[in-house]
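In practice, a research group might receive sequence data for several interacting partners and want a quick structural hypothesis before committing to experiments. The following worked case mirrors that situation: the sequences arrive first, and a predicted assembly follows.
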Amino acid sequence: MEYFPSVPEVPYGGPRSDTPLSFRHYNPKETILKRTMEDHLRMSVCFWHTLCWNGRDIFGEDTFARPWLVRSDMEGQKAKVDAGFELVRKLGVPFYSFHDVDVIPATDSPKEYESYMAEMTEHLGRRMEEGGVRLLWGTANLFGHRRYLHGAATSPDPEIFAWAAHQVRHAMKATQALGGENYVLWGGREGYETLLNTDLRQERRQLGRFMRLVVDHKYALGFDGTLLIEPKPHEPTKHQYDYDVAAVHSFLSEFGLLGEMKVNLEVNHATLAGHSFHHEVASALALDIFGSVDANRGDPQLGWDTDQFPAQTDEMTLALYEILNHGGFSSGGFNFDARLRRASTDPIDLFSAHIMGIDTLALALRRAVALIEESTLSSFVANRYRGWSSDFGRHALGGDCSLADLSKQVVESDLRPEPESGGQEHLELAVHRTIYR
Amino acid sequence: MEYFPSVPEVPYGGPRSDTPLSFRHYNPKETILKRTMEDHLRMSVCFWHTLCWNGRDIFGEDTFARPWLVRSDMEGQKAKVDAGFELVRKLGVPFYSFHDVDVIPATDSPKEYESYMAEMTEHLGRRMEEGGVRLLWGTANLFGHRRYLHGAATSPDPEIFAWAAHQVRHAMKATQALGGENYVLWGGREGYETLLNTDLRQERRQLGRFMRLVVDHKYALGFDGTLLIEPKPHEPTKHQYDYDVAAVHSFLSEFGLLGEMKVNLEVNHATLAGHSFHHEVASALALDIFGSVDANRGDPQLGWDTDQFPAQTDEMTLALYEILNHGGFSSGGFNFDARLRRASTDPIDLFSAHIMGIDTLALALRRAVALIEESTLSSFVANRYRGWSSDFGRHALGGDCSLADLSKQVVESDLRPEPESGGQEHLELAVHRTIYR
Amino acid sequence: MEYFPSVPEVPYGGPRSDTPLSFRHYNPKETILKRTMEDHLRMSVCFWHTLCWNGRDIFGEDTFARPWLVRSDMEGQKAKVDAGFELVRKLGVPFYSFHDVDVIPATDSPKEYESYMAEMTEHLGRRMEEGGVRLLWGTANLFGHRRYLHGAATSPDPEIFAWAAHQVRHAMKATQALGGENYVLWGGREGYETLLNTDLRQERRQLGRFMRLVVDHKYALGFDGTLLIEPKPHEPTKHQYDYDVAAVHSFLSEFGLLGEMKVNLEVNHATLAGHSFHHEVASALALDIFGSVDANRGDPQLGWDTDQFPAQTDEMTLALYEILNHGGFSSGGFNFDARLRRASTDPIDLFSAHIMGIDTLALALRRAVALIEESTLSSFVANRYRGWSSDFGRHALGGDCSLADLSKQVVESDLRPEPESGGQEHLELAVHRTIYR
Amino acid sequence: MEYFPSVPEVPYGGPRSDTPLSFRHYNPKETILKRTMEDHLRMSVCFWHTLCWNGRDIFGEDTFARPWLVRSDMEGQKAKVDAGFELVRKLGVPFYSFHDVDVIPATDSPKEYESYMAEMTEHLGRRMEEGGVRLLWGTANLFGHRRYLHGAATSPDPEIFAWAAHQVRHAMKATQALGGENYVLWGGREGYETLLNTDLRQERRQLGRFMRLVVDHKYALGFDGTLLIEPKPHEPTKHQYDYDVAAVHSFLSEFGLLGEMKVNLEVNHATLAGHSFHHEVASALALDIFGSVDANRGDPQLGWDTDQFPAQTDEMTLALYEILNHGGFSSGGFNFDARLRRASTDPIDLFSAHIMGIDTLALALRRAVALIEESTLSSFVANRYRGWSSDFGRHALGGDCSLADLSKQVVESDLRPEPESGGQEHLELAVHRTIYR
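A structural hypothesis for the assembly, expressed as tokens:
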């Protein structure tokens, strides 16, 4: 069955293309800065939001009436998957991503869960082969079932912790079987609703233990993908333990997990945490824990995760500038963890939204490359810190001098240093000129 | 000279006292939970906001016309200090705190700076002895002088880094000489204004180096106080490196400084970072880096540091509940890093504000002790995590089981765990009943 | 059938009561400032959140398993209503409130809707009579059904506008039949998701027209309750037209509706709009459009409507202080538009939550009365503006002087006015002393 | 004296210009949509931020060392003005704007104030004539002097109200004499710090009176410029009475001032109030009170007015799209109420910043014109509301039908309307394609 019969494969039409469903910027096989655009961006369609959500929000019922959501049994699940692969194929992106429960019927039975996962892994594998589609990452949904009311790894009930282990085991097995390049852990409810009922130290310890079990399991399995933690500050919880890049780094440090796990950054999670997305990307790169990106955008006036499709070329350009400067993605990529607006009920809206997202990233890539080639930023930065390459700078930063030594030198030389301009507007102008041309 | 001639020493009057300038809750020598209130709370008057600020804000000129700010030379500085000690004495709190530049004339000369600090250390020492007042902490202001435009330790100019070392050396020397119990480092401009001109990795490295120099200097000096970092997310900077407790823990971990430095938490900094103050206190305690508190409050509708005197008994009760449960302060205490409103131009307002702050903390202490004694919270929490003391729980958390083992057990026992109620409203009601009685 | 067999009617136990399910502050028949507490507070249980919500959130499935939600047909609806009346009776509050769809089965048929409403109005009437319970307000849910995707009165489709009229007609009819004291209009989706597809002027005009139709209908019907608009800034929409008190006043002014409609203020809606609840109450009173209150609280760190049961005695005290100073409620009251936390799965939690809310308001009432009696605030304010009662003040404010006249007087008298202290901390201390005793 | 000797007049260089200090998009005399770019944009340099601020912030001292700020007497003021005109001339923008106290020495004497204003009006007039520069607006600073501690028009002291009248009289006189096209009233401290000491009704009445006096004075004077109120939600106050467009409309309605005053919208004030700038522009246009714009941008992570130079082409494009659709500016224009970052200490930074701002607006104008010409948005919107032009729609919106009539029609026709897609992503994609090309 074809779910989007009126939509052909979306072609690249060039920057002035007037075909509505075409790309103006995304030309997958075009080489730029030594890689194809496809390989730079490694874009992925997310099955959760895109296929499983039917338009319900906290104040209103379903609005989408997706034909692939009519049945929820295994046949219904396969229909959903088939719709997903049709979408991926027509968009021409190389990857998809999924949660365990995105593709199997609901069940409380551990055995049924296991057999559903096994059956669906085969189905997914077939569809991937047919479509030449790859798996960016798999994951387990450890927050939707009512048992995860208080979290999964951080549940006060060790049997629930064990159920989470059960799901991760099988979701990782599926991910490995399908050649997934990463396995993601999003701590949906790993946090607290109120500190009044919470033993923070205990819950951190549980989470550390769980992550260690996952890491060990990865090695036991021989899975060679990357493990990713996805920071989010809150929602649905009051506070999530993997709040932001700094909180994840703190956590990985405490439990000896640095080097074993990286971060999957989501744009809207960054902004909910009070950071620019640029900040989170740059911080993760500076801390050597950058892994992958969930590409979306938030609404600067709204305090929840709106998960809108990305359109903010300026923000994504700066993120890509950082990523490219550090060598680009290795196992990660850009996954569209984005939702249509609930009122976008026309199936074509799914295509408009993805085309906007894909072209936003493609254009951001082109602009980031231009920023690198023009080198205004990199020259300015290099010049700005030049003092640290002087004798005095190297001595201060790395020598065996003491605080008192430095103080004495200040007195002896009667130092009265004059700061230079930070040149912020000069650099902003350079970026503006490069992005908008 | 007496600066507040109309104000006597503020007495404890008991919970129904009608004397305007009296305490209703703070009875310093009263013993409660094995310590005097004075020793539990270890309150401190902050010289910066309280003595040095003359009411100017970003949109308007001075409003306070403090008599002790008429002259800015050394005589003027001594007048300011004297006004401060009069205030401390009349409020009956045991501590004060200060920045280097709070008490000396402005100068660009390293030598003059040094000699001013030496002279003022003597003056402060005399006044402390006369008044029986102690020093909670000293610090250096590394953000006000124009040389610190781009930060101090994280300045792109190593000579500015060295100037910061010069100031810290002498501020710490003064702190040691005056028997200070802590030395604080607030990273006022240690952060960035724009990532466009910033080398994050380089600046983190500089900051790590600076802190290491400070730690080594402390040992070299034989200073036995605690070193404290004060988290703040932003303002005046776009982003400050010591954003919140998690960021500080991440930083201390990266640079091998865990165990050497603790945090000085400020209420309004916590809330600007998107956390409840309760969260930051509980997190610092869970990570073993809790040190001291700057007591104030913010305005939930305003996005800058309003630094208002504390009045929020509920918030401070929960913070004290956590602190007491972990054994109370060691070297830290409650410092009033709070400012009058700019329109509170009557000198008496300084007393009303401090009395409100002191009584808020005193009442919060009494209520926190009641929470501990009633034990509704602690019993609930203990019971909630009881599963982790079972064989299964201990096995899951600490045994040599693997993820696969847990998964298998879920299947074998066909586990279908039912979560219990988190009882949030039940606990909130218990807290409400204890605080409001 | 009894839904809460283990819970007796909740008694007043006095301020030191140790009975878990008892009131410490709410003594309904106690007279205070010339009215009984019951008549001052006019509290109401809200059927929507309390009875209809089963614990689902945007990330997870139902958690509550309410026995009265097993069936959704008319029998199921009656069971739900009966559970509600049992709750109201045991809590001893005088009022309840409901939406049309809270108490009838879902239907797309206009006729079925009408007949369901008629049948249920009778059932509700019987239960009210049996229990001595009154209706604070009725309302129609114009946001849950998918037809209201783009709003109801502001839908681009006039047939949807007409459907909204249909619902309001029957919901108001039920409200009138049941002796409801108010009728509420909450503009759940009366706003926009994106300005790109929105004709603001057209939608405002539709909303103005709808409200005019509602007002006229009220008179046609002879319904003598108050019409209330409930401001909310956003959620689920990006922007709601009844954003805050000022926006509602602007709207009522534009469409000639001042005097016809008042506001139903919700605490958490106020704070989401960037205002203190105190501000919204004081503003509505100053603009003569204050009507009623939805009592809950938000979470200062979260950017969505958490609808928590009120516990913030200080905030509610100041709101009640304003309300009492303006003569108290007329037709309005305090409705608990509050939800349990999703993890509070024990039916007893419903009682703990309501008891906390009721006692919070009862204590706030007692404290607000104390503030009035002590008169520190009112005296200070009266004195502060005394200048406006002087000749010069009356002349400036109300005389026939011109701007130029005033300017000339400034020059002639060489005026150099000195502002007095605003005394903020002095007043905050007075409030603190009154609330915490 | 020339203050920027190294900077020539900034030329238009076209979209690929590599000259650092040149415009790529602003070509003042180019005609586009029937007006020159200069006439469309009516850009203005603001003397306050640009000339008077020396880099001080709340945490640190001056950083800029402007040569024109060395003296503060009348000679110093004239130097400042001369620097300003040099800047305006070299940037080639047609307008400037100023506050009274931006250009005169500080004084407490009403007479001196008057004579300073008279003298400076002459000096400004000469410079305007020489440079062919026009005045977009004048204003009085009613918030910086300590007498305005509690506001100006809303001060509790009527003598302070009168002083404000004195300043407005002379600032308006200067504005008229200099041919200013608007006169602005920004309520810097017209609001409250705490409701505890505030009589809201009294202060609103004072503000209404003041505005009425200003309006009457305008007519008495024969000044034919537009009066503008500038909304801002808070800062420095806790709450400002002209919070946002809705609050200003509510205020103008209450005091019968609709038609007499319009709004001067500032981008960063809009976002601090929780609105997109697009929203505030569209709302002001829909309410017929749109006047002028202070062009800057805020920082989405910071909660204060950062007043950064505009660079956000997408946001300004949508604003210009609305403005052009309503006929463009009449007396208003784009004033750069923007500040350099404190660390941008190089005088050239002033030029980089203005060039960025000017080019951002110029490009936004070009893109907005493209949006109008392509008409995707306008066609979609027209089609979306087509139902309101049907018989049923006209009947519902404007006929003499009642609520009951509409309800009956729903039943009779058994209406079951199906909503159409809102097409948000489709429209966002169209905007993206137009802006980024």
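Before designing any experiment, note the following. Chain A touches chain D through 46 residues (CB under 8 Å). The radius of gyration of chain A is 24 Å.
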